[in-house]
Amino acid sequence: MSTARPLGVGLLGLGVVGSAVAAGLMAGRGDIAGEGARRPALKRALVRDLSRKRAISLDPRLMTTDPSAILDDPSIEVVIEVMGGEHPAFDYISRAIRAGKHIVTANKEVLCKRGDELFGLAASHGVRLLHEASVGGGIPIIGPLSSDLLANRITSIRAIINGTTNYILTKMAAQGAGFDQVLSEAQQLGYAEADPTADVDGWDAAYKICVLARVAFGASVPLEAVYREGIRGLQAQEFRYAATLGFTIKLLAAARMEQGGLLVRVHPALVPSTVPMAKVDGVLNVVEVEGDLVGPLWFQGRGAGPDATASAVLGDLLRIARGSEIRKQAGASRGSHQVRLALMDGHECKYYFRLVCKDRPGVLAQIAGILGRLQISIASVIQMDANAERGEADLVIMTHPSLEKNVQTAVREITALQVVARVASVLRVEGY
Amino acid sequence: MSTARPLGVGLLGLGVVGSAVAAGLMAGRGDIAGEGARRPALKRALVRDLSRKRAISLDPRLMTTDPSAILDDPSIEVVIEVMGGEHPAFDYISRAIRAGKHIVTANKEVLCKRGDELFGLAASHGVRLLHEASVGGGIPIIGPLSSDLLANRITSIRAIINGTTNYILTKMAAQGAGFDQVLSEAQQLGYAEADPTADVDGWDAAYKICVLARVAFGASVPLEAVYREGIRGLQAQEFRYAATLGFTIKLLAAARMEQGGLLVRVHPALVPSTVPMAKVDGVLNVVEVEGDLVGPLWFQGRGAGPDATASAVLGDLLRIARGSEIRKQAGASRGSHQVRLALMDGHECKYYFRLVCKDRPGVLAQIAGILGRLQISIASVIQMDANAERGEADLVIMTHPSLEKNVQTAVREITALQVVARVASVLRVEGY
Fold first, then answer.
1. Is B208 a known active-site residue?
2. CA separation, residue A388 to residues A358, A362, A392, A425 (Å)
3. Half-sphere exposure of A426 toward its Cβ, with a 13 Å CA cutoff?
4. Which residues pair with A427 in a beta bridge?
5. What is the pLDDT of residue B337?
């Protein structure tokens, strides 16, 4: 047990994650950091409602509804922010940094949207801004990227980092059910929010891949620069056809050095059913990292849950308690420098198209003509389910590697064809 | 670029790993550690033979055959040891520590056999003894266990941490070939040493699981306390029968808190073909960690190779260059305390037996009688290949969870039966 003066901790937010963090501190999980470490002591927790019932029994005197009771208390040296969202988290964190307090946060949204300001502020005030919990729950990924792997140039990150959508996609694939039905089941089970926008439209994954890109590439990636596509548009047929063709559908978040620069993207993708990424199911998360020395690495675990998130928050807190690396830190461990960002237009991959076509001769010739003119080479064409009554059929086309820009042009031109009822789906195939 | 005084580095060993480390330093991989960091500068490398041709061209004046030129040079603040083996590495490392130098080592053998002394010495001299490269090549695992996951009580580690044996087992399973044939192929390809003892008899995996047990459980595990069984005895039939029954054979290294204490073991095991562990093939390594907060985690990557190992060595060096955590450290991050060690005798799991029996009535009754008396409950019995000429048949028995001690007694009693030619194989089945 350390004899050093305790390390005063203030907690912003006492929801499920905040309660797990508080419980961990009270259970003495801060006391195992080894010699020379200071013991974290919870001084105060900011709550919205003092009377609300909570999972833990915390001395009521520790709770406050006044942020200044934490931000202006000089005995509090570390502020843990687990409220989430940009406001008021940004204001609280920046006030705490200005007051010379170290920050531990699980908040990917504020780090994505206001990271430049916050890391800059932390650097100029000589405090630490740690955020292992912001990506992948308790999976150590920020630590390895910012420390263990520092001798590598990171070339690629690909990840499944949103548990809600992965749960939905896993269920859709297993049950052949539609998106709306699976979403409402997920909501009932607590795996999806009442307003599922942040998850199903890919915002949460986009925040997280921005956070990873900063740590891995030293890149400041504005949210607007992330190509983002969610899973709302996916239909039951896509899962059936993908399985027939030997693929699974996953919502991938990726940041990779391509010819034009760093391309950051979030979208559903067809992944070969045989590769490990295809088997990361349910609420599991995975982050695949490629470094130029170390080669490909794979970090997998539970991507969410109060205890897993508390594991990461407390791990960061213990870093501070051990006094490690408390010195001026740059915006990111790799320094912050201008990284050229690439546009999705220049991305090249194989594509899956599903076209609902009039079931009549000559259809394929017209479609193939457009694709050929745009340098999109067809790998296979399969006519799937036909609807005889309506005289329509599903035409599934898999292409060889093609340029995104050309594919988008092709989609416009094919949509305009008389013989095509609609382009029902365009999905990227992730290469392995 | 840092303006601070360079950090003097001495390198013990300039083989493939040492050369990759030196190449990394010369390529400026030490210069990216961010503000406030010191730039590592290679001062001198210890070699056995100055005239030997090497993969890198190093200024000959940097090479020496005299260890004192490194160990007694006050301008060298960090010693990187990549010679391997207990002697003379132990002497060099302890001399360097006594001279106040930080140590970065890839040497699992010396850490396993002399860890108590070395970590104790490092603590009393206030220097760091870092060893990410000692387990799993470039996979970050020592870092996560000793820092990111520090708020967890680790309950279990299971790993495939020897690339040579995993390569051999993968080939034996795929080709149906025998051990000797695959070993000699592996030797020709450079995946196995001329003397393969350290790998195939499980010593290397045992060293590594001891190193992991120290970091994860704060336990000092003497090599003699590790239950160790290699892969030399495995025969082609086992792979065929295991596949028929839905299993793959892997050399597992495990450290887990069981009822009697911490059980540390290395042995081949039947792993269900459907679980991820079964699919870690070839020279890949994986470490599966369970923490009480974070749940199960999975760290996978290339377990060997000069560049991957250099990634870990340089990562540790950059930790020191950034000045992080340079304070008194205990023997392990979790402190060193007396951890009770369990004996293999008390281990419980399912078992696979292959008995070569006389092909005559009543055989099974005698065997079942012995098993029943020893509380070993039979899950299935299958008669596999029979050798009509010799009047023998392979009898494969799968049991329900049984006690190791009873299984060993059963093996002795069954071996003594007139109707049993021999107990050809006893393998543990790893539960998932």
1. yes
2. 10, 18, 6, 21
3. 17
4. A352
5. 64
Question: Which residues are within 8 A (CB) of A403 and not within 5 positions of it... i.e. 6 or more apart?
Answer: A345, A346, A347, A348, A375
Nearest C-alpha of chain B: how many angstroms from A361? 46
* CB B304 within 8 Å of CB B163: yes
**B236 phi, psi to nearest 5 deg:** -55, -35
From chain B, the residues in CB contact with A327 under 8 A are: 36, 322-323
- The two three-digit tokens of residue B360, written as one number: 């005559």
CA-nearest of A129, A106, A81 to A305 is: A106
- Which domains does chain B show, CATH number per domain? 7-138+308-321 (3.40.50.720), 142-301 (3.30.360.10), 347-429 (3.30.70.260)
User: Residue B229: what are its φ and ψ, rounded to 5°?
Assistant: -140, 130
Mean pLDDT, residues B72-98 taken together: 98
Closest CA to B345 of B423, B419, B265: B265
Q: Which residues of A touch B139 (CB under 8 A)?
A: 294, 297
Q: Is pLDDT of A430 > 90?
A: yes
SS3 B9: strand
Contact B132 A148 (CB under 8 A): yes
Q: Residue A355 pairs with which residues in a beta bridge?
A: A395, A423
Using a CB-CB cut-off of 8 Å, the residues of chain B touching A315 are: 147-151
For A48-90, how does the pLDDT look when each residue is reduced to its tens digit (9 = 90+)?
999 888 888 899 999 999 999 999 999 999 999 999 999 999 9
pLDDT tens digits, B24-71:
999 988 776 555 678 999 999 999 999 888 888 899 999 999 999 999
- Among residues B163, B280, B169, B140, the alpha carbon closest in space to that of B232 is found at B169
B204-219 pLDDT, tens digit each: 999 999 999 999 999 9
State the DSSP code for B29: T
Burial class for A333, CB neighbours closer than 10 Å (0-12, 13-18, 19+): buried
Global pTM reads 0.94
Q: Would you say the ipTM is above 0.85?
A: yes
How many C-beta atoms lie closer than 10 Å to residue B174's C-beta?
Answer: 12
Question: Hey, what amino acid is at A296?
Answer: P
Residue A318's nearest CA partner among B296, B148, B392, B245 is B148
Residue B347, judged by CB atoms within 10 A of its CB (0-12, 13-18, 19+), counts as buried
What is the rounded radius of gyration, in angstroms, for the C-alpha atoms of chain B? 24
Residue of B nearest to A124 (CA): B35
Query: Tell me: the pLDDT tens digits for A87-125?
Result: 999 999 999 999 999 999 999 999 999 999 999 999 999
The reported pLDDT for the residue numbered A337 is: 64
pLDDT tens digits for A23-42?
999 998 877 655 567 899 99
**Residue B329's Cα: distance from chain center in Å?**
24
Please answer yes or no on whether A323 and B323 come within 8 Å at the CB atom.
Answer: no
